[in-house]
Amino acid sequence: MSGWGREVxxxxxxxxxxxxxxxxxxxxxxxxxxxxxxIVITFxxxxxxxxxxxxxxxxxxxxxxxxxxxxxxxxxxxxxKLQDMVVSSPTTPSAYVAGMALGEIxxxxxxxxxxxxLAAIYIHPGxxxxxxLLGVFLLMFLGSVAxxxxxxxxxxxxxxxxxxxxxxxxxxxxLPPVYYxxxxxxxxxxxxxxxxxxxxxxxxxxxxxxxxxxSTTDIFSAWTVLIAVSLALLLIxxxxxxxxxx
Length: 246
Hints:
Layout: H1 3-22, H2 26-44, H3 50-78, H4 82-87, H5 93-107, H6 109-122, H7 127-154, H8 158-174, H9 187-193, H10 197-208, H11 216-240
């Protein structure tokens, strides 16, 4: 294994394996958050929106996984001074963040496994649709990782980090129409939903599996916005995150 690979593995062990082994209760939150909304939407719609709810669960899981990075990095930075040790070591920021982010995905495996089974039963995505969905979920994760990492380098307290993480997750992963079609939002308020990148992720996911009908222009625009926002967030993380000035 290369040096970069060992650095990534070390970050994974620190961020997920150790905590999951010693405190398995931490897995409950990653499972309950997306599935609870799925259950509510499915019951309220009498099963009519189960497909949209499953895809919304994926989007919420991936976004929350990235945002959870903020709290974990802030805790390790401020309480254990781990970032100071990493900065003074040969470990690169990319290896450290990649390993920590991968650890967040490992946390989400139980929820993602349940959602994958439900998707296979109720949505039946083909190979092309599955690739589209994977692309959407990956962009959601990368964007939220960039936000989480950037904010963690500025945060001075774990309580502050958790507050921002929950607020941003609510604004981007709960309020926008990811668990249901955007047409359910009245027109005066529908335009506000497009301020969130998760709205475009929901539209692409729902369109790719035939749950909603979008024009080719609308789909192209949604992909363009989602990719552009994700790249912009990653660029901000690279340029503005306080990696060494801590």
